[in-house]
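To illustrate this point, what follows is a protein record of this kind.

___
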Amino acid sequence: MSTPLMKISKSTQKCMTESEKEKFEFAHFVKTVLANPYIPNKPTIKQMEFLLLNNKEALYGGAAGGGKSDALLMAALQYVHVPNYAAILFRRTYKDLSLPGALMDRAHTWLDKTDAHWSDTMKTWTFPSGATLTFAYLASENDKYNYQGSEYQFVGFDELTQFEASQYRYLFSRLRRLKGSTVPIRARVASNPGGRGHEWVKQRFLEEGETKGRIFIPAKLDDNPFLDTAEYEQSLMELDPVTRRQLREGDWDVRADGNKFKRHWFEIVDDFPADSRKVRYWDLAATEPKPGKDPDWTSGAKLAEKDGIYYIVNITKTRSTPKVVEDLIRQTAELDGVETTIHMEQEPGSSGVNTIDHYRRRVLKGFAFYGDKVSGSKEVRANPLSAAAEAGNVKLVRGAWINDFLDEIVGFPNDSAHDDQVDSVSGAFAKLHETKESKYAVKPRVTGRRRS
């Protein structure tokens, strides 16, 4: 391993013993990290591996809790004592940058009491040497052109799988240095598996990897001695199985058979118990397909539950005008019967209130119908369904709808063009689970006054 900033000729290096080279490397590490006044934290063993790398491109992490953000920030700060050194750190959105504990907030914790100066307008720290560390985001594809003409010796990406490959590659055109400079040119990234860019990141760093000079330093929860691992383990257990394996184990292969769901989790059965509880849940859309357009579907999933086993009875879906959608929903309610409770996702605002009121008073009059104000992302709402399916507790009642449903759900959330069926099934599952929980809830005991 070479030692940047140590002006040693190649001929001299050839005469050095391995022990002498190691001493130079350690002296360099002390200067840029351990004795760096802008890096207050002591690096973990895995972070040291990452910080000692001098190749152009490296990925750190893979699992949650491995100290990814600290590693990136340390790497960016290694050479701020060098005049005109410039580093930049990216997240996908400004919100990602500015969250409590995220990169900018962490940098303020480290640097506020130092002699570095913060520009809130430019989102840049400037150091006495003239070196800079900038925080930025790439929310859209064209945002990459905001940095056309810029020059950096360090470009870092936090949660790389949230970015497009084209955004990442373009920033390589910004990596350069003046002739004669001994500051290494570095692209340093950190990420967990999963996300929109999972496949290209995996291909670049794990498949091609060292054959293309790209180093992957895997770090897991157990590699971070500063974290309360027992408490964090409990938090990770609340996740769906796919996300849990990605974050806990840093498993880059878990998506091979889908994202949050696997096809073989769903047993196909011929029927469902007649005395089960039944719910139909609608995810509403009302747009006809046109050439070049691929609008969302109106999807209505009927689920039944008995003794903790959930049956997806059928899924009805269409893409049509509001009137055709209304007629379909009314007809489906009549076929399901009054014993099937009907729910519909309620959009925010007055339009959502008006839609639910219209269906209650006109379209579904005479049926048990309820609007449902949802919260959280589609992925979060699908997590309980994913956990139940992995346990073998979700069955599919044989029908022509099954293949379309399985194709959609095994690609959810990143590899499917639509998620309407997943939304309707997740909604129906949630309603059945709510009523199941309330059935077994302990009710307060009501007592009367004793008569004397």
Q: What stands out?
A: The first strand starts at residue 57 and ends at 62. The mean pLDDT is 85. Residues 420-439 form the longest helix (20 residues). The chain is about 35% helix and 20% strand.
